[in-house]
Design a protein that fits this description.
The structure is a single chain. By secondary structure, the protein is of the alpha+beta class. The protein folds into two domains: 40 residues; 52 residues, no CATH class. The chain has two helices and three strands; from the N terminus they run ααβββ. Strands 1-2-3 form a three-stranded antiparallel β-sheet, with no helix packed on it. It is elongated, with a radius of gyration of 22 Å. The protein starts with 11 loop residues before the first helix and ends with a strand.
């Protein structure tokens, strides 16, 4: 099912109701965009797989950088002002 209506009653009241519905849905979209950081992981996928938690290149690596391999998801986080890599083990489900 599409999020937005694609048809409407071709009468003045039908058009007004259609527009009201679009405006309401658009307002919901704007609220969701403002909450993206809580919904999606922010950062950029990088090509390197870190070899240790301190495998950080100053000026090149940025907080939120991430990558993965078959065993782990790696993400670069700020730990009290110091960037460090953290990893989470991947498993089947």
């Amino acid at each position: 099912m599409d999020r937005y209506p694609s048809t409407f009653d071709n009468t003045p009241d039908g058009i007004i109701n259609f527009l009201k519905q679009i405006i309401r849905l658009r307002s919901d979209d704007v609220t969701e965009v403002n909450n993206f950081s809580s919904i999606f992981m922010s950062g950029r996928k990088v090509n390197k797989v870190p070899t240790s938690s301190s495998d950080v290149i100053s000026g090149q690596d940025r907080e939120g950088d991430f990558n993965y391999n078959v065993n782990y998801l790696f993400i670069l986080v700020d730990n009290s002002g110091t960037l460090v890599w953290r990893r989470v083990a991947l498993s089947s489900f």
